[in-house]
Every structure is written in C-alpha cells, then in structure tokens.
Amino acid sequence: MNDTQIVQAMLRREEVGIDNLYKNYNGALYGIIRRMVNNDDIAAELLQETMLKAWNKINTFDQEKGRLFTWLNTIARNTTIDKLRLKKFQSKTNSDSVDTQINLASDTQLPNDGIDAQNLLASLDSKYEVVLRKAYIEGYSQSEIAKELDIPLGTVKTRVRSGISELRTLLKNEKTLFFGIFLSLILILLIWS
C-alpha cells in the first residue's frame, strides 16, 4: 500500500491501514526513537505508542501540508520527548545529560508547513546531504556521523555549517520558512551533539 492508501484505510478504521503503516515505517521510526532514549525496551514501547497515536489522530494528517513520514516522525519525537520529561524515566536512566536534552528538546517542533525535508536535503551537494540527513532525519550526533562516515569530527561540523548555508541559499526567498527549518536543524543538532 502507498501512503495515500494507508491513510484512507486508517480513516475508514481498517486494520490493514495500521498494519501497512507499521510495516512501512517501524524501522525508521524505531531508529530515531532508539537514538533518543538509548534503550531497546523503551524504544519499542515508544514506537508502539507512536503508532497508536497515529491511529487515533489520523484525521489530523493533511497530505497537502507534508508527507506521512514527516508527520509520523513528529509524533515519534514528541512522544519520546514527553517520555524524557518524566521524572520516572530520568531516575531510571541515571543520566546527568538527560536534563540538558530535555531543556533543548522542549522547544523542538519540526515545521509542518508543507516543506518536504527529504527532497530539500536531496537537492544539496551529496557531502552536505548525507551529514544533514543523518543529523536531521536519522537523529545521529555529530560524533556518531564522524564515526560512521569515517571522517574527522571537524569535517562533519564544517559540512553541517556549509549544508545549512546551502539551505539558506535555496530558501532565500522564504525567510520565515527558512528560519523555522534552520532553528529545527540547530536544536536537533544541539540535542544529539
């Protein structure tokens, strides 16, 4: 099933819709959530919660404003951020860095104004696209990107800055729109750095 068919089936409350949604997106969403919480069991729980929220709120999805994955990604990130805010989770992880992540993440909302981040990133030079995609879409930290791509951390940081500069050029006529995307990129990069 394609995204439109999945959405239509879910709107009709047909189980095949949620089955296909899960089949198509569980891997990508799990990866994003897993990187945020650093725990397999909690990530699996949050993935299920994300899918349940998608099922219950499918009528709020607007295909004119964005892609299904972008909408699901927003739900997954917000669900995970909510979990990170819970004191129970904070004490369970025994991590001093969680408080910093929560403060930075609390204002992080991905823009849902019709911009397709996937296509926007695909229009960049490939060396910038890969680092921004890993940071923005996949949730990698800059040090994780450096390790995975086997390049120096300084190179990753430079490519992120240069990629954002290219985004600025691509969106020069859309200053408000660019500011929202730029702010989201910066906040997300700070969270996982």
Folded structure, characterized:
It is a single chain. Helix 2 (15-37) packs antiparallel against helix 3 and helix 6 packs antiparallel against helix 11 (175-191). By secondary structure, this protein is mainly α. It starts with a helix and ends with a helix. It has 11 helices and no strands.
Could you give a short description of this structure?
With 193 residues, this protein is mostly helical.
Portion in strands: under 5%
Give me the oligomer status.
single chain
The count of DSSP E runs of length 2 or more, i.e. the number of strands, is: 0
Radius of gyration, taken over Cα atoms and rounded to an integer in Å: 17 Å
Low-confidence spans: pLDDT under 50, at least 5 residues? Answer: 94-114
- Structural class of the helices, strands and pairings? mainly alpha
The gross shape turns out to be: globular
Question: What percent of the residues sit in helical stretches (DSSP H or I)?
Answer: over 70%
Mean pLDDT: 76
Q: Total helix count?
A: 11
Rounded to the nearest angstrom, the distance between the terminal CA atoms is: 37 Å
Q: How can the largest sheet be summarized?
A: none
Query: SSE order in H/E notation?
Result: HHHHHHHHHHH
Key features of this structure:
mainly alpha, globular, 193 residues, 0% strand
Sequence-ordered SSE layout with sheet pairings:
Blueprint: H1 3-11, H2 15-37, H3 40-56, H4 68-85, H5 87-93, H6 97-105, H7 117-122, H8 126-137, H9 142-149, H10 153-170, H11 175-191
Helix pairs in contact: 1-2, 2-3, 2-4, 3-4, 6-11, 8-10, 9-10
